[in-house]
What does this fold into?
Amino acid sequence: MKNSSVKITTEKLDLNECYRFVADASCGGIAVFVGTVRNSTENKKVTKLDFSTYKPMAIKEIQKIADLALKKFDIKKIAIHHAEGMLQIGDIPVIITVASPHRKAAFKACEFAIDALKKTVPIWKKEHFSDGEVWVNAHP
It folds into this structure.
């Protein structure tokens, strides 16, 4: 039985897919993080975001995060899915779901996963504004 689901895709992310993957009769808690494209940043109106990845390396790095979360926290399953390509306001660039016997481990693992993803995974974000565009950091 596989305990992690890792994906980078140009398709619309599916929260139900991530939820179904981690659902487990032995788990009393499922924590979920859903990142959404917001319409502003630092006093500028955002019109859309463009996510680019170095996919082979990004998949490996996300898998490392999933594997580490499974070792570090008392969790049973984790799903980390990230979008690539152009996303509109309200679209979902990242979903993380974590199942554990007890809620605290699920929350901690979920927070760990999004923080690690932002720090280590080669995914780049370009913010588009009505008056231009800018690459933001090296990570989402």
User: Anything to note?
Assistant: The chain has a mean pLDDT of 92. The longest helix spans residues 55-72. The chain is about 30% helix and 40% strand.
